[in-house]
Amino acid sequence: MLNQTVIVGRLVRDPELYETENGNKVTNITVAVPRTYKNVDGEYDTDFISCTLWKGIAENAVEYCHKGDLLGIKGRLQSRNIEEEETNKTIMELVAEKVTYLSSKKN
Fold first, then answer.
1. Which pLDDT does position 44 carry in this prediction?
2. Structure pTM?
3. Mean per-residue pLDDT over the chain, rounded
4. Could you report the per-residue pLDDT of 54-68, keeping only the tens digit for each?
């Protein structure tokens, strides 16, 4: 079985570095990825993909990546359950194994 995903999109906001109770560094980013086809109104929709970056990948992203930068992210899809106000939600996220800086935001 294989669980591997590659996306290319623009960073929605500057990443922030956090430290877990065990001392691991982590950041959660959102990448805007435009769809390759138009909707019924003739416009391209955009998907906003949540990504989790750990340890060195997280530290590098916080140092070098900024809102609007074009990134390539390779990783695996992962689901997790969150309990909120007596309801359960399942969240899908991309756990990054490699982040490639492609270009900065256009001026």
1. 94
2. 0.86
3. 93
4. 999 999 999 999 999
Alpha-carbon distance 61 to 86, whole Å?
Answer: 35
Nearest C-alpha neighbor of 15 from the set 47, 46, 52: 52
- Residue 86 predicted with pLDDT over 90: no
> What own/partner pairs with CB < 8 Å and gap ≥ 24 does 81-88 have?
none
Nearest CA to 32 out of 43, 44, 24, 40 is that of: 44
Listed in sequence order, the residues at least 6 apart from 25 whose beta carbon sits closer than 8 Å to its beta carbon are: 17, 18, 19, 54, 55, 56, 58, 59
Fold of 5-103: OB fold (Dihydrolipoamide Acetyltransferase, E2P) (2.40.50)
In three-state secondary structure terms, 21 is coil
